[in-house]
Design a protein that fits this description.
The chain is an alpha+beta fold. The chain has 6 helices and 12 strands. The radius of gyration is 28 Å and the shape is globular. InterPro entries: Ribosomal_bL9/RNase_H1_N, RNase_H1_N, RNase_H1_N_sf.
Length: 294
Amino acid sequence: MTGPTGGILGGTLRALPDDLTIQTGSRTTARLLPTHLEIQTVVHNNELDNELNNELDNDAIEDGYNSDNGDGLESLVSGMSSNNGLQVPDTPPPLYTPTGIPMKKKYRPTPPGELMQFSGPCFIMMRAQETGVFPFNDRYLSRVAGMGRRAVWEYRRDADEARRLYTALYNAGLVSAEPFPNSPFANNAFDWVPDVNPPVVHRAPIQGFLPPPETLRPTQSMYKFYLVKKGEEVGIFGSWCEAAARINSLKGIGKAEWKRYSSWSRAYRMYRRAFYLDELSATPVVGGHFDVHA
């Protein structure tokens, strides 16, 4: 409780002597724990004679004290205080001490609630510089320009159906925004996350789940038919985005196989044939979205 003079109740604050100043220093460390990133900052206050200030400051510049005082979080905080309202830092990632870890940007895909509202044909962008559902217009292809085969997108006849598909992919964590550093989309919302890349491990084919042919059924809105014979999950899917989600982690290592057919009956016959000839292989990433049948 404070008194009327601004000090602690029972006495006023003691004035700082003219020949003293307070120097504050801090050291921040970061440690990656199994469930979260722990950041600890220790602050030191020292009373210094004013006549020593200049000498100490000069020494600090020469001996690297300033660069060793903290881990760069100060610039991150100052950047957040002057952002454009998105609560997104606009400064370089924090620099960590040898006991910590580096950080990287992870861009946020467009939430379903922020998708454009329109009707008619459209593009759905699942892995792009900016994700979402956009009108069928060439100018929106800039969101996948330069990404090559890494981009995952497709034409859909109906925007309402495309938004439902996008929402399902988003909720499953299968949508990825990957803008180039100098593109117009590099200013989109992102988070700083630990720059760690755990190894990707797939289950052995013997552990995968192969749906019996008689359990497969076409949906009412299906007009594309993608047969995935080798992927994290096998079956017949009604969009390239759904099929790509099941083969992306395997394409780079030559263990994915898929094909598009013009009709359900043709895709079904080929799936049934592959099932009984033991040509199907389901190898989901351990702990991944499709690792549910093992």
